[in-house]
Amino acid sequence: MAGFRIPNAGLRAPRPAAFGADPSGERMARIRNSPHFANGVFQNPGGTARTMPSGSSAELAKTYLDRRARARRSPGGTIPVHPTTVADLARPPATGLRITWAGHSSVLVEVDGQRVLFDPVWGERCSPFPFAGPKRLHPVPLPLAALGPVDVVVISHDHYDHLDMPTIKALAGTDTLFAVPLGVGAHLEHWGVAADRLRELDWHEETKVGGLTLTATPARHFCGRALRNTQHTLWASWVVAGEEHRVYHSGDTGYFEGFKEIGAAHGPFDVTMVQVGAYSEFWPDIHMTPEEGVRTHLDLQGGTPGGVLLPIHWGTFNLAPHAWAEPGEWMRDAADAVDQPVAFPRPGEPFEPAGTLPVEPWWRSISAPLARPWRKPGDLEPGPKPKKGDLDLAGER
Q1: DSSP conformation class of 312
Q2: Is residue 96 within 8 Å of residue 352, measured between CB atoms?
Q3: Rounded percentage of the chain residues whose pLDDT exceeds 90
Q4: Closest CA relative to residue 155, chosen from 179, 173, 121
Q5: How far apart are alpha carbons 116 and 174 in whole angstroms?
Q6: Mean pLDDT, residues 334-361 taken together
Q7: Half-sphere exposure of 379 (CA within 13 A, CB side)
Q8: What's the mean pLDDT in 240-248?
Q9: Between helices 290-300 and 258-266, what is the axis angle to 10°?
Q10: 80, 86, 87, 90 alpha-carbon torsion, rounded to 10°
């Protein structure tokens, strides 16, 4: 992407810094040599994933513009953000593993003496522009600097709600390392991260950070920050293994059978952080429903309940037609059906998976009524994809 073109002028407008940079040189050579790169683009596991909305544009517009549905895509009150303090995070976790969900897919994981920060987005909007794009529904739980030292920042892919330029620039001034999928390092170098602080991995490659082993694992999604999506940066899920604990972060992904292979090779996990928001029947290949999120966790655990599931990618930004609180409420249904422990922390609320889990449905007091039940209790088969009628209040369909 060369930038915005000015017709017939022979000139180019400046490329916005938030677009990042395209891979080139040795980085591009690595991309072309990747076994997951073919026909000029990175390939998804399980075949081609539809990355553009399916169905008619009229139906999609109708869904987004429905008055009652629009009202339910945002909370009806103030989201209860946990007042996280520096002292909360300064004390080492008693069990060796502590999780702090900062909202959306941003998670601080303190594991076996190391600190890993996944997909940090501290910006006000997930957009290349400060004046437009999806805006936060709640403030960040604490300033970025208040997190304390971070050993490694892990990025799942280069979409704006996972890779935030202002946040990366702030972290570039620290001593942290960055683990990113193949090609994404071009953006970070463009924003001031030194090349020797980058660990840029293809799927199934690993790197060591202190006592941790980080492995980039497959996901079913896509990439791109500029106006033209070249598919030259990879997307990934991540496994982080310490001496005593293992965690998994899904990034963004649709459901695919490869989760079973990831679980067999790297699991079981003490906690999985799994994307369960921003789903829609219009893009079923690239994001998961809550039921699919539970199925993913079970696949990663070898087919049986175990460990703790933390739903991510919901509650912070309005990115899909479904009701704001629906991912949390439906996740409770799907997990209860198979007796799988799930943590529901307020944004910023630290918890230890081996301790007492936060399970209160805190969203209910600020949510409009939702259509329920989503699935039959005890039904282990996949529930239905959300339909347009699910956006209506119970009894109003």
Answers
A1: E
A2: no
A3: 74
A4: 179
A5: 14
A6: 97
A7: 11
A8: 98
A9: 40
A10: 120
Residues in Cβ contact with 348 at an 8 Å cutoff, skipping those fewer than 6 apart: 81, 82, 83, 84, 100, 101, 102, 103, 140, 141, 142
Tell me the C-alpha distance between 148 and 144, whole Å.
8
CA–CA gap between residue 188 and residue 163 (Å, rounded): 9
Contacts of 300 by beta carbon, 8 Å cutoff, 6+ apart: 248, 259, 260, 262, 263, 267, 268, 269, 272
Look at residues 397, 376, 386 and name the one whose alpha carbon lies nearest to residue 73: 386
| 359/346 Cα distance (integer angstroms) | 10
pLDDT tens, position by position, 222-232 = 999 976 666 78
At residue 249, the 3 state secondary structure works out as strand
Quote the CA–CA distance of 75 and 363 in Å, as a whole number: 8
Average pLDDT of the residues in 94-114: 98
Token pair of 319, please? 């990115």
Residue listed under structure tokens 């072309």: 32
Residue 23: HSE in the Cβ half-sphere, 13 Å Cα cutoff: 24
Torsion angle in degrees (nearest 10) through CA of 147, 151, 156, 158: 80
Question: Which of 141, 164, 139 shows the shortest CA–CA distance to 153?
Answer: 164
Q: What is the DSSP letter of 396?
A: -
Pull the structure tokens for residue 30.
Answer: 């690595």
Between CA 112 and CA 238 the distance in angstroms is 17
C-alpha angle 4-159-267 in degrees, rounded to nearest 5: 160
**Measured distance CA(66)–CA(132) in Å, rounded:** 21
DSSP notation for 59-107: HHHHHHH-HHHHHHTS-SS--------HHHHHSPPTTSEEEEEEETTEE
Q: How confident is the model at residue 69 (pLDDT cuts 50, 70, 90)?
A: low
Spatial separation of the C-alpha atoms in residues 322 and 54, rounded to whole Å: 16
First to last CA, the chain: 45
Q: Find out whether 383 and 291 touch, Cβ atoms under 8 Å.
A: yes
**Alpha-helix residue ranges (DSSP H) falling in the chain:** 25-33, 57-65, 67-72, 86-90, 165-172, 185-190, 258-266, 290-300, 326-336
